[in-house]
UniProtKB/TrEMBL annotation, chain A:
Belongs to the binding-protein-dependent transport system permease family. LivHM subfamily. It comes from the Bacteria. CDD domains: TM_PBP1_LivH_like. It is found in: Cell membrane. Keywords: Amino-acid transport, Cell membrane, Membrane, Transmembrane, Transmembrane helix, Transport. It holds the Pfam family BPD_transp_2. It is a multi-pass membrane protein. This is Branched-chain amino acid transport system permease protein. The lineage of its organism: Bacteria, Pseudomonadati, Pseudomonadota, Alphaproteobacteria, Hyphomicrobiales. The chain crosses the membrane at residues 12-35, 42-59, 65-87, 108-129, 149-168, 197-216, 273-296.
UniProtKB/TrEMBL annotation, chain B:
Residues 1-35 form the signal peptide. Residues 41-394 form the Leucine-binding protein domain. Keywords: Amino-acid transport, Signal, Transport. The keyword Signal applies. Belongs to the leucine-binding protein family. CDD domains: PBP1_As_SBP-like (cd06330). This is Branched-chain amino acid transport system substrate-binding protein. It holds the Pfam family Peripla_BP_6.
UniProtKB/TrEMBL annotation, chain C:
CDD domains: TM_PBP1_LivM_like. Its main location: membrane. Keywords: Cell membrane, Membrane, Transmembrane, Transmembrane helix. PANTHER family: ABC TRANSPORTER ATP-BINDING PROTEIN, HIGH-AFFINITY BRANCHED-CHAIN AMINO ACID TRANSPORT SYSTEM PERMEASE. The lineage of its organism: Bacteria, Pseudomonadati, Pseudomonadota, Alphaproteobacteria, Hyphomicrobiales. It is found in: Cell membrane. The keyword Ligase does not apply. This is Branched-chain amino acid transport system permease protein.
Length: 299, 443, 330
């Protein structure tokens, strides 16, 4: 019984984390049709930025948890916007309209470059910025001890999801974006500045990636390579949910998160396969993902 | 819609020119590499400079190599290493990255030996790399000192090594030592659990540990073992699964960022209030745990290395030289790297070449085999695997953090002699453990 | 058999390479070229699918199957004849591809890429779980024989694997060159351009893709087997997604313009990487990244476009460029 509860709680926490990691990826793909291999690097940059900022804030051994949260989010915003702008203005805008697969390769090159750039900027020593994580303490739910930080993470994931959804479905700008998603050329013909929409989307996507990294940083040790580790996970979420769909990413994250928690508790030997297993299964049944639209075949 | 594509046809002239250019470039590059005749003793150092193993292991190792090489070239080390360089020849270190997998490392190993003409290679953290490199070292007759990788299979298979040596310890030693330490310090526990990274290291560590535990503490029940993917970072579900089983001790062979993340999360989730965790690689994060690892956490350093290294003139010099340059104390990978280079120097100088010259590899290998040399970790005997594997004690202790100074120390250290935790030659470690450690001499 | 210019060049290059390699080149360079050519065979598998518009981010699957077949054949089946081991890998890969292909050929674009990646990662997971196969450490390939001769270490072994690899690579390239100009090869390109139109011609893109997928698997397994023979070691990293990423990287580096391109690209890649590691040990990935970006920006058709010239007038792909395409029936 306790195990079922634990699966539910652990699964939801992991799902929230997965959703935060994947949200930026799916937004960028949805609007720009770019499968951003470098998404993990933005995650890592956010984590490094947050960990350095927190380390600096707590350098003298004192500081308040509340302020450290603001610093965390501030660091993510700055890192995501600055690096996102550099990449978009300096590289991607020259590549718009290229083949989708070629864009994958371009972002793969970007991943290689950013990995080493991070090493040069932040070094390879682990960053340990645990203060915000431990400051919140823990709660006991039916005998299971849970970190409050992780519960806050669920709240943030829900808020980010709702904000994205509301923005796309309920605002004017969101409607314009949906027009771009639906048909880029017609949107352009209607006077939409598609390139500006692209810039905006890319920055939102990278900032979301950096935010995910920043929110993860306090609960891990930030080391080189953490970005590469999350890419495939984020891809799995997005592919399961349907590329470019926010609802899809949320459902995909929940499905993968709960499956993984269940595997850990009841069948640890399958933990290693569960993500890819679920992904293959979903794709075998619904090739376009749970919320993906079937593409119209053009003659 | 892509409809119009230009047709392309090969232009033989350009093709020939291109092939010629590549061929020419390769010849030029090979020509540039014949620098082995500069009279220096060139050592190829291979360790992780990128990826998750770089921070905890690779960079401390590379730093130690630089510190030792610089000290040796100045003749600044205490006796018996107070002579300059190696056999009077200046040492030149070529440091390359171990990241990228075994296939790439085999290629880079050949490049080091045949292109860069190194006189010896010191390196390799990954067991897969060691396994792949060992036969190539024999094939190329290239003196190779493995300093860190822990696989029991390195000298176990039907290999007859001549040029490959390992100055670090077998990972089985870590886990036999951990089982013995638990038996000595926590004889009354009944429930134990484990969490390991799901790859060769974690799997082997856990199987060695559980086998050894069955011998040292036959009444203990193993209640759970979790095997998350390596570098996963998020251990929420695993920690719950462990907590539910209420173990008294949790064994983990985690290392690097994974280990730090697990300790942080397990501590925050209350798992470590009720259970003591045994970290076989814990020493490498001694400076970073701060108040996040509870006092009493059992940590090891894969031998008498890092904070477990004994007080002797060599280690005092090494700790000072390392701390002066890198403003932190050397952790166990650093000590191990220093040890490998010192072993190499000792062997090379025993090889009997005239002073100031670089001895041939065969002579160094002959001198290295079965040798005994002084090291930063005390006296090292190359006493296993027919004189190719170091035999040393292993230590475990408990973590103690002082919030006032912000420094962590290790207390309650117990050291088990090499003969106590290492199988004799010709016996595989798992068979030795299952048989109840026949012939073990414990202090 | 009439040979065209490319085929003549292929034979000539193979002979020159074998002579130059065994007589003049240093050991490390021979080894580097051997591994590069073996990997280039996997890249050929990627390119075969690229020509049909599919990008496989999981070609490491067959590379790994080929490699493990060589390793396990020696370890568990007691086989030690090199050619038999290679054949074993090809058979294993073909059987696996025939099963996976049934599912994969229903997918296009990014879904194909991700699903092929997922399959490769599942094999990776299975191997990591297999402690008797050494888990992530992998295991060493046992001593093997070629045409009855035992291949022992040293120069002789390096040269033998080198010649075997050059011969295999040349043979595969020869066959591929003919395949690309055959009716089916041409149809693959047509599928990339417009699948629906191909269907309207009465052909089945799905089954053509299927055959292509299986053939690509066989070629890639050969590459994996040769790599295992050359390095003497196999491990699950061969199936990890970054390995597959490297193959796609090399494929784009070379371009799809010619059967030579993957070989050239693999050798250039290996040289750039080894010198980047030597001279910039802390930034070699960055060098690779910039190289790749440079290629994409300045040579979008790959390195091979350095060796080609544009036709005087662009020829629309809808017009018959080869008389034989007219007679395709599937």
């Amino acid at each position: 019984m306790l195990s079922f509860l634990a699966v539910l709680i652990d699964g939801t926490i992991y799902a929230s984390w997965l959703f935060l990691v994947a949200a930026g990826l799916t937004v960028i793909y949805g609007v720009m049709r770019i499968l951003n291999m470098a998404h993990g690097s933005f995650y890592a940059i956010g984590a490094y930025a947050a960990a350095s900022a927190i380390g600096w804030y707590f350098a003298d051994g004192t500081g308040s948890a509340g302020v450290s949260f603001l610093i965390l989010i501030g660091a993510a915003l700055v890192a995501g916007l600055v690096v996102g702008t550099l990449v978009e203005r300096g590289l991607l805008r020259f590549m718009y309209g290229r083949d989708e697969t070629l864009m994958v390769i371009i972002t793969y090159a970007l991943l290689l470059i950013l990995e080493d750039a991070m090493k040069i900027v932040f070094g390879v020593n682990p960053y340990f910025a645990y203060q915000p994580y431990t400051a919140l303490g823990r709660s006991t739910i039916a005998g299971l001890k849970v970190s409050n930080y992780d519960l806050v993470l669920i709240g943030i994931a829900v808020a980010v999801g709702l904000a994205l959804w509301g923005w796309l479905e309920r605002t004017n700008l969101g409607k314009i974006l949906r027009a771009v998603i639906h048909d880029r050329e017609v949107a352009r013909a209607m006077g939409v500045n598609v390139r500006r929409m692209f810039t905006l989307t890319f920055l939102i996507g990278t900032t979301l990636g950096a935010l995910a990294g920043a929110l993860t940083a306090p609960s891990i040790s930030v080391v080189p390579g953490i970005g590469v580790e999350v890419i495939v996970l984020a891809f799995a979420v997005v592919v399961v949910g349907g590329m470019g769909s926010i609802e899809g990413a949320a459902v995909g994250a929940l499905l993968l998160g709960l499956s993984r928690a269940a595997a850990v508790h009841f069948a640890p030997q399958f933990e290693l396969f569960v993500i890819y297993g679920v992904m293959s299964l979903v794709l075998a049944i619904r090739p376009q993902g749970l919320f993906g639209r079937t593409l119209v075949r053009k003659i | 819609m892509k409809t119009v594509r230009s047709m392309t046809t090969p232009r033989p002239g350009r093709l020939a020119a291109g092939v010629a250019a590549v061929a020419l470039a390769s010849t030029m590059l090979t020509g540039a590499a014949g620098a082995a005749e500069n009279g220096k003793f060139r050592i190829g150092i291979v360790t992780f400079l990128s990826g998750p193993a770089a921070g905890p292991f690779g960079i401390p190792s590379a730093n130690a190599a630089k510190a030792i090489v610089e000290g040796l070239n100045k003749g600044a080390l205490p006796a018996p290493y107070n002579t300059k360089g190696i056999n009077g020849a200046e040492i030149e270190a070529v440091i390359i990255d171990e990241a990228g997998g075994a296939t790439k490392q085999v290629e880079e190993f050949r490049n080091l030996v045949q292109r860069q003409k190194v006189d010896a290679v010191v390196g390799y953290i990954s067991s897969g790399d060691c396994l792949a490199i060992a036969p190539v070292a024999e094939e190329l007759k290239a003196l190779t000192v493995f300093y860190d990788c822990g696989t029991s299979r390195l000298f176990n298979d039907d290999s007859k090594p001549k040029y490959a040596f390992r100055t670090g310890l077998d990972a089985a030693v870590d886990n036999i030592g951990a089982a013995r330490y638990l038996a000595a310090t926590k004889p009354n526990i009944t429930k134990i659990a484990g969490i390991q990274q799901n790859y060769a290291w974690g799997q082997d560590s856990w199987s060695d540990f559980t086998l050894a535990l069955a011998q040292t503490m036959p009444k203990v029940k193993v209640v759970e073992n979790q095997m998350p993917k390596v570098f996963q970072g998020q251990y929420g579900a695993e920690i719950s699964a462990l907590s539910v089983k209420k173990p008294e001790v949790v064994h983990s062979s985690f290392w690097g960022g994974d280990m730090e993340a697990f300790v942080l999360q397990a501590n925050a989730r209350g798992l470590l209030d009720d259970a003591t965790v045994v970290l076989t690689c814990g020493e490498s994060a001694l400076d970073r745990f701060k108040d996040q690892a509870p006092n009493g956490t059992i940590i090891g350093g894969r031998g008498p290395f890092g904070a477990f290294a004994p007080q002797n003139a060599l280690n005092t010099w090494f700790v000072k030289a390392y701390t002066d340059t890198y403003s932190m104390a050397p952790t166990y990978p650093a000590t191990k790297m220093a040890q490998a280079i010192l072993g190499l120097k000792a062997a090379a100088e025993k090889a009997g070449a005239s002073a100031g010259t670089v001895p041939v590899m065969d002579a160094i290998a002959d001198a290295f085999k079965g040798s005994t040399f002084e090291s930063v970790s005390g006296t090292v005997k190359m006493d296993r695997a027919d004189g190719h594997q170091a035999l040393q004690p292993i230590s475990y202790g408990t973590y103690k953090y002082d919030p006032k100074t912000g420094k962590a120390t290790i207390e309650n250290v117990i050291t088990f002699s090499g003969e106590c935790v290492t199988p004799p030659d010709g016996t595989a470690s798992d068979a030795w453990i299952k048989a109840g450690f026949p012939g073990a001499k414990c202090n | 058999m009439r040979l065209d210019k490319t085929e003549l060049a292929l034979v000539g290059l193979a002979v020159v390479l074998m002579l130059a390699g065994t007589l003049a080149a240093p050991g490390w360079l021979i080894f580097l070229i051997t591994v590069a050519l073996a990997k280039a065979l996997v890249v050929q598998g990627v390119v075969m699918q690229m020509k049909a518009g599919l990008v496989s981010f999981g070609q490491g699957l067959f590379y790994c199957v080929g490699g493990y077949a060589v390793g396990m054949g020696g370890q568990f089946l007691g086989l030690n004849a090199g050619l038999v081991l290679l054949a074993l890998g090809v058979i294993a890969a073909v059987v696996l591809a025939m099963v996976l292909g049934l599912l994969l050929t229903r997918y296009r674009e990014i879904f194909f890429a991700m699903l092929s990646l997922a399959f490769s990662m599942i094999l990776y997971g299975v191997l990591v779980k297999s402690q008797e196969l050494g888990s992530t450490d992998g295991f060493n390939v046992k001593a093997w024989t070629l045409l009855g001769r035992t291949i022992e270490g040293g120069e002789q072994a390096t040269h033998t694997v080198f010649i075997l690899t050059v011969l295999t690579a040349a043979t595969v390239a020869f066959i591929l060159h003919r395949f690309y100009r055959s009716a089916m090869g041409m149809t693959c390109e047509a599928i990339r351009e417009n699948e629906v139109r191909v269907e309207f011609l009465g052909l089945s893109p799905r089954w053509i893709n299927y055959a292509n997928y299986v053939a690509a698997a066989a070629v890639s397994a050969l590459g994996g087997g040769l790599t295992a023979l050359a390095t003497g070691h196999v491990d699950p990293d061969m199936a990890y997604w970054t390995t597959s990423g490297e193959f796609v990287f090399i494929a784009l580096l070379g371009g799809t313009g010619s059967v030579f391109a993957p070989f050239l690209a693999a050798i250039v890649f290996a040289l750039v990487r080894t010198y980047a590691i030597e001279f910039l040990p802390n930034a070699w990935q960055m060098i690779l990244g910039f190289t790749l970006l440079g290629i994409v920006v300045f040579l979008p058709k790959g390195l091979w476009s350095l060796f080609t010239r544009r036709a005087v007038a662009p020829v629309p792909s809808s017009s018959p460029t080869n008389a034989r395409t007219g007679g395709v029936r599937a």
